[in-house]
């Protein structure tokens, strides 16, 4: 069998314009770059961030990828799927040792981890305390003792090669926009956008988490100051959600045929619309929002919403 060098795009992303009376009233153009369509299971920024890392792993003859993530991580699901497609073994180091106590129950209840295992990923659960050491040499050396040689992809997939991939999101046809918006987790996606945005464009990042460390992480990979983080739309922290956000995501899906995920793109879009209402953007502005994928996370979120008695996301 001839091994593929890396991932292959299943669909060309396209720019979807949103038509809405708020946008007409405020004289704003809002377009979504549907990067989520790049690949069924390695969608959006996951495709971009894994692309050159897999080429590198192949070049260096690694047959195993090891990476890190939480119980509902898009990156874990995507890495597992990429491994299956390319015949590369995958290991997921998962935050939360309690999940490993009853694996059968975990896999029954958690669609992300079940999917990862079905793709052939081997899961290794560690406590939240241990997980914090995931970038330290001793911790990595322990993993090498357990699993042998592997190509390490950091949490969220962000490293230099990931940024090389996310630098391919914007194309020449996007030069007409004044603002480029993206959800932010570990910063690799926005770093690529910052590096390739034109001088007249401003990049706005909407962090999905509350913590403040992101600015330095992004600055590490970028060489321009054409960007800003808007921290008002994390809804209380990573993975946190409320009725308002669920209803917003469902409304956007119904009215505009635009599926959003609850952890990243839903919060970004909520933020963009709120800022438009508050006249943050000058009249006549053209905004391009990047759809970074992550729709696999809806199923897991619905299980949590059901437990809390909140309305569910339409899937
Ligand atoms: C759907 C989605 N959007 C945005 C992000 C944030 O990307 P980054 O970690 O590169 O900031 C992630 C995390 O990878 C994600 O899964």
Structure in words:
- This protein is an alpha/beta fold and about 325 residues long.
- It folds into 2 domains: about 15-40 and about 160-310, 3-Layer(aba) Sandwich (Rossmann fold); about 45-155, Rossmann fold.
- Helices cover about 40% and strands about 15% of the residues.
- The protein contains 14 helices and 10 strands.
- It has helices at about 20-25, 45-60, 75-85, 100, 105-110, 110-120, 130, 135-145, 160-165, 190-195, 215-220, 245-255, 265-275, 295-310; strands spanning about 15, 30-35, 65-70, 90-95, 120-125, 150, 180-185, 200-205, 225-230, 285-290.
- The protein has a 6-stranded mixed beta sheet. A 4-stranded parallel beta sheet has the order 5-4-3-6.
- Helix 3 (about 75-85) runs parallel beside helix 6 (about 110-120).
- The longest helix has 15 residues, at about 45-60.
- It is globular and about 60 Å long.
- About 45% of the residues are buried.
- The model has no long low-confidence stretch (mean pLDDT about 95).
- Bound molecules: pyridoxal-5'-phosphate.
Please outline what is shown here.
The chain is built from 14 helices and ten strands.
Task: Fill in the keyword field for this structure.
single chain; six-stranded mixed sheet; four-stranded parallel sheet; 10 strands; 15% strand; Rossmann fold; globular; 315 residues; binds pyridoxal-5'-phosphate; alpha/beta
Q: Characterize the main sheet.
A: 6 strands, mixed
* Helix/strand order, N-terminal first: EHEHEHEHHHEHHEHEHEHEHHEH
Shape: globular
Structural class: alpha/beta
């Amino acid at each position: 069998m001839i091994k593929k060098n890396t991932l292959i795009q299943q669909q060309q992303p396209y720019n979807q314009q949103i038509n809405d009376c708020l946008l007409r009233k405020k004289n704003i153009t809002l377009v979504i770059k549907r990067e989520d369509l790049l690949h069924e299971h390695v969608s959006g920024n996951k495709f971009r961030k894994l692309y050159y890392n897999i080429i590198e792993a192949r070049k260096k003859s690694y047959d195993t990828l090891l990476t890190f993530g939480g119980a509902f991580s898009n990156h874990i699901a995507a890495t597992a799927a990429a491994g299956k497609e390319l015949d590369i073994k995958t290991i997921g180091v998962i935050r939360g040792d309690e999940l490993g106590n009853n694996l059968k129950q975990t896999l029954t209840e958690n669609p992300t981890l079940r999917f990862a295992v079905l793709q052939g990923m081997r899961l290794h659960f560690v406590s939240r305390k241990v997980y914090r050491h995931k970038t330290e040499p001793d911790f990595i050396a322990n993993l090498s003792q357990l699993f042998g040689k592997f190509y390490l992809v950091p949490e969220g997939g962000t490293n230099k090669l990931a940024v090389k991939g996310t630098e391919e999101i914007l194309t020449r046809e996007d030069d007409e926009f004044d603002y480029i918006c993206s959800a932010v987790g570990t910063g690799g996606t926005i770093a690529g956008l910052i590096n390739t945005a034109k001088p007249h464009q401003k990049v706005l990042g909407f962090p999905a988490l509350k913590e403040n460390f992101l600015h330095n992480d992004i600055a590490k990979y970028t060489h321009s100051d054409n960007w800003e983080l808007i921290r008002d739309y994390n809804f209380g922290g990573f993975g946190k959600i409320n009725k308002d956000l669920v209803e917003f995501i469902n409304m956007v899906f119904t009215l505009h045929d635009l599926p959003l995920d609850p952890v990243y793109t839903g919060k970004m879009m909520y933020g963009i619309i709120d800022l438009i209402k508050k006249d943050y953007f000058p009249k006549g502005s053209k905004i391009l929002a990047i759809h970074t994928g992550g729709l696999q996370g809806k199923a897991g979120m619905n299980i949590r919403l059901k437990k809390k008695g909140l309305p569910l996301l339409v899937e």
